[in-house]
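Known limitations

Files may contain more than one protein. Parsers should not assume a single record per file. Below, a two-record file is shown to illustrate correct handling: read the sequence, read the token line, then continue until end of file.
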Amino acid sequence: MNPSFDTFVLPEEHQLLRKTVREVAADKIAPRAAEIDERAEFPWDVYDALVAADLHAVHVPEQYGGIGADAIASAIVIEEIARACCSSSLIPAVNKLGTMGLILAGSEELKQHYLGKLARGEGMFSYCLSEPEAGSDAANMKTRAVRDGDSFVLNGTKRWITHAGESDFYTVMAVTDPDAGSRGISAFIVEKADAGVSFGAAEKKMGIKGSPTREVYLDNVRIPADRMIGEEGSGFKTALRTLDHTRLTIGAQALGVAQGAVDYCLGYVQERKQFGKPISEFQGVSFMLADMAMKTEAARALIYTAASMSERMEPELTFMSAAAKCFASDVAMEVTTNGVQLLGGYGYTRDYPLERMMRDAKITQIYEGTNQIQRLVMWRNLAKNHPVR
């Protein structure tokens, strides 16, 4: 972000963190962003750089070997990485998504074991909720977990799983009581090394190409019963609580993409000349940039407000997290689309970053709950807390 636009006042430690992440991003990530997109391969060199800088999973509490960053700090890390490369920002974002349920509801033994591995860079976490027939309607999942003595045996297919095949650990939602509806869903930790775990081919996506998305196949996967997260039947509740805390990280990702577009366009319009003067001197162009920057700042305020609510576990988090994700992702799509327009023909080519930013921005309106679902979440929350008198 251009320093003159840094209007959200943060504590010194957050400002120092932003500086650190920005330096890592400028040195290790930004030079690779176009290649990561072009080759559509997971950037293990970026992962190694983030692990070396303790930026791959900043949310892990100190007692489990992490740095114990708060929710605002986590958002800043994701935002700053996304400003350089949206695909790479999914490394810290999905590590948080994959472990938030464990942090909220897991046993101390599970936390010590798996959060410790994550903090040490001994494997990434992914989150397995969606299925072929259960996307927005996640409670309709078909994956089963059947108790067999001291084990559970899992069978089913999970779809749209970020970093599937690359991650070593997976938080998996599965039905343990088919007659109990959403109260019959439980959460488990499955390891890539477990017998019966396999993966589909990587999806051929429009954007975030450096973040592989695959199906996860569970074929008679036997795991110890103590790998259940929380009580049996509490999985769907844990999933919803997880999303309250992690939707805003997708908003932070969208914010980073938007800010990257604003920054690039600010430089471009002041250098590009037409009719004998910089195009920034044309009112139509300057107003577009003003609107892009204004909406990006509004998104930042929403994201950081939601993050502060997440840190304090406030009851209003459900509404605010949905609002922050929805607004920021809509802004990212608008800002990047306008950025392509400002660059004209250059914006439509892969030689310039705006078309990649626009493609990457689109997914933020879709995953971790489409923006239509976010509006439904907001409305239900409003109706619940403001009943008709």
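...continuing to the second record:
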Amino acid sequence: MIKIHNLHSYYGAIEALKGIGLWVRSGKITCLIGSNGAGKTTLLKSISGAVDCKGSIKYNDSTELIGRSSQKIARLNITHVPEGRHIFPGLTVKENLEVGTINWHGFFGRMPYQKEMEEVFELFPRLKERENQLGWSLSGGEQQMLAIGRALMSRPRVLMLDEPSMGLAPVIVSELFEKITEINRQGTTILLVEQNARLAMKVSDYTYVIDHGRIVLEGESLEVRKDPRVIKSYLGKFAKSHR
């Protein structure tokens, strides 16, 4: 679905990604793990057209994303749910979801989007219960559901999730990841950046490990979970901090 080759990304003079190469497989969940500052978020922003970069990011083997604006990339049905949710606190749940249709519906479009709305409410029933509440009044878990629901309103073919579990209680995280796997089963390709490496590799098909802007390890998630380097650097550390 997305093939990245020799990707270099920059914040001014600082090179954040240093020749990255990876493949987001169609219909699968691909996860990216690594320590803070390793370049995970920068990779998602590079695909979304939000940072300066060079190299190649091909969509469907033919469409080059580098050089395209974020708006044009969104219209290709590549949708990014950023770290921190970034819902609109002064809009209702329903209004936040309606914003998600902008890439295909337009500001004053007349095409119906009730089908998409019903599908989001079926996936996240709590959003239906709170459809007239303002965004700021939702819990952290509900805001994350809303951020993902808003992304689904854009009819994504590729859904990029940046740290969806951050700041959430374990029981909410478990429920949220059940929904993420359900979204994938319905046909959406997912690129997942996640601090909970154990859970990310449990639900994903393929894993890349990034360190200091470079891919240092990759493979089928079941195999990467067994790698002693991953156990020591990520799984062991996670287990100790959540005893």
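Parsers that stop after the first record will miss the second one. For reference, the second record is described as follows. The beta strands are 2-11, 14-24, 29-33, 52-59, 63-64, 78-81, 158-162, 189-193, 206-211, 214-220.
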